[in-house]
Design goal:
85% helix, mainly alpha
Amino acid sequence: MDWSKWIRQAHRWLSIIFTATVVANFVTMAFGQPPAWVVYSPLPPLFLMLFSGLYMFVLPYVAKGRGAQRANG
């Protein structure tokens, strides 16, 4: 499996984890003030998704640049 497939798969799993932590956050809020670790639990997967999402966003532009270099070279 190459890097882009691995990162895409990791991004999918991180989104599932992020969604679960947000749902858990709202469920605990229904019972009163949630502990700090529950409130901040969505942040680590969110930051990891930021980096993997930026990588996937930039990937087509980098591929275009590489294609242009091969055509010219």
